[in-house]
Amino acid sequence: VDYSLTWTCYSGKDVPCLKCGSCVERIEAFEYNNIRDPLINKKVWDKIISE
């Protein structure tokens, strides 16, 4: 699956909000599977995961 073509955020913006329930669950799923969400740039992803 090309996850860069998938979208779960409810904000309707150009980038995921990273705060809504869908974004949180998506982040958790990608983190659990040890891969970075392709919709989130590496710098932001690293910051999210380190928190």
UniProtKB/TrEMBL annotation:
| One Pfam family this sequence matches | QueC
Protein name, please?
A: 7-cyano-7-deazaguanine synthase
Source organism of this protein record: marine sediment metagenome
